[in-house]
Design goal:
With 210 residues, the protein is mainly beta. It is built from no helices and 16 strands.
Amino acid sequence: QAAKTPLSPDTTGAKWQLRFAEGSGTAYNSDPVITDAHIYVACKSTLYQLDKNGTILSSLSLEAPMNSVCRMCLSGNRLFIPLSGGRMQCIDISTMKPLWTSEAFGLQSLTTVYCANGFVYAGTTNATGTDGLFYCLSAEDGKTCWTYKAPTPCGYYWSGAVTDSADNFVLFGGDDGILISHSAGSDTVLDTYDLSGSIPQTDGQAAGPG
């Protein structure tokens, strides 16, 4: 509330801007991850470490390029980066060195990566959200703890996850409209809920519970 707003175009605008990819073709940047001292951005198959003035301090070639969306997650010094082909790569940002790369689950990595209690959660999808799976990895070594594939055509397009306060279970939803309650670390589905029953009908009348 104490921040002063600019009074004219001469006192506002971008402090700096940086173009990572040059030349023809489409290139996307990841969502940035910001620490006290640095900014981390992935573009194509490169991870960049910047200072707060936009200067590139270092870069690292990743195992695979990112897709059109790349929503990384930082836990301690470990940066978890979703990559094309359904891969996850873990980078130690204190050294800018790779620690591990998960198995390739296939398709695109478009979910928001979520980390909790030593686990990493993410999902995969095709372009139409009709194929894919959700998975859990060990944050320590990248080994697969479990995968979940819906019994109906379903991808995880711009999806994400959240755990309960005790990290006993994880909740995630897919493009089939089903919310899954899953054991946080073991291959057990606890419950499901059809969210489509909460979507209002076109005539303005709400549907009954699913």
